[in-house]
Specification:
This protein is an alpha+beta fold. Helix content is 34%, strand content 26%. It is built from 6 helices and 12 strands. The longest helix has 27 residues.
Length: 219
């Protein structure tokens, strides 16, 4: 499942995404508040300054699925750079968030006038594409237990050296992202907890330990 890396980029965009430039605005959202909706006009790119968001889609049959997450240092709404397009997904704040909204004209100006921003943004898009491919391969080839472990590690952003990290995600969301049932997610999470890989409070607050990686290499 597509999740953001949450790692600051080589060329940190914060100095250019100040909210003071033309076409930029800093917005704050409470947890569970919708940031943009499926089928809305795609008029702006978004950058996550603080917090985490999840991306969902509703199929023609009415089924809703969470297909990705983005964290601090991530972008979403890239389709806004395509002319006359509409959003294919709904983006909702998973936690309290600070989001930078950049109108399409503002993004084009940044790409044209700031080579370092253009290089960073292209590099980010390539890394996100690779993460999406890895998530698709994971969905097609791994067991539900390993898929859940990978999703939780991605949520915890273990590109960092921290041994533990606390994240917020409920079991329904994890089931949607893993492609299994909530009952199986509960079963696997209890197993992970017995092994000391995670702790959770039943309210969506999960402490993930780096040792959860062992699940990915178990046969």
């Amino acid at each position: 499942m597509a999740t953001g890396g949450g790692t600051r980029n080589t060329h940190d965009p914060d100095r250019l995404l100040s909210g003071k430039a033309v076409g930029q605005s800093r917005l704050r959202f409470a947890a569970n508040e919708i940031i943009c909706r499926q089928d809305d006009p795609a008029e702006a790119l978004f950058y996550v300054e603080v917090g985490q968001v999840h991306i969902s889609v509703v199929t023609p049959s009415g089924k809703q699925a969470v297909i990705g997450l983005r964290g601090e240092g991530d972008f979403f709404g890239v389709r806004s750079l395509l002319s006359g397009d509409h959003r294919l997904t709904t983006v909702t704040a998973s936690t309290d968030c600070t989001i930078m909204r950049i109108k399409k004209t503002g993004v084009k100006r940044l790409l044209r006038d700031h080579v370092d921003f253009a290089e960073m943004f292209i590099s980010y898009l390539l890394r996100q594409h690779l993460r999406d491919q890895e998530s698709l391969i994971d969905q097609l080839t791994n067991s539900a237990e390993k898929r859940l472990a990978r999703v939780m590690l991605q949520l915890a952003n273990y590109s960092r050296a921290d041994d533990t990290l606390t994240v917020r995600a409920n079991q329904t969301m994890l089931a949607n992202m893993t492609g299994t049932t909530r009952a199986r997610v509960n079963l696997f999470m209890n197993k992970f907890r017995r092994h000391g890989y995670i702790e959770y409070d039943g309210q969506g607050l999960i402490t993930v330990r780096n040792a959860l990686r062992k699940v990915l290499f178990d046969d």
